[in-house]
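To: structure desk
From: M.T.
Subject: fold request, one chain
Message: Could you run this one when you get a chance? Sequence is below, nothing fancy, just the single chain.
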Amino acid sequence: HGDDLSGPEQRALLDEARRRCAQRSLRATLHEGDAQRLPFDDAAFDATRADRVLIFLHEPGAALREMARVTRPGGRIVVTEADLGSAVVDAPDPELTRALLATAAEALPSGWMGRRLHGLFVDAGLVDVELRMFGVPSTSCSEWVLRMGVAPAGVAKPNTGHHHLLVDTGPPAFGEPIPAEKAPGSHVHAG
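Reply: Done. Structure tokens follow.
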């Protein structure tokens, strides 16, 4: 499957990101492109990051392999991703809540991405992979849908920055170099 996530909504998000970067005087160049075919040379970056991207892809492993390809050996890869099958929602009707969460997970190409990340990282040749699970309890299904940004078409999808899963490697603190001898490929690290 190919995933075409381009369109007016995505361009609007990119325009908003550019506006925010300019507003904060950040020196960042933003590109619209295909996560499964990044337009960058091998080992072009010290670090790469994806936030709630893989859950929307039919072939998330291809995007992760691309991140590994463009990240220098010993670099860092950070992925924050949801696992809709492990959502914590305290709603009054448990049966309905389970049904709604299952429907949301099945509606996305990779709705159970969180639990697949470790295997995908290993398959991509990454080392020192560590998963950290974060439960983000919601008090209703509607609040959870808004938080996760997986509302049905036509419904506003604000990004509140909450994630259920963080992948990272341990020992070095953010900003410390990862010894090259530990990295035949790239590392995953959150700072």
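Reply (cont.): The first strand starts at residue 45 and ends at 51. Let me know if you need anything else for the meeting.
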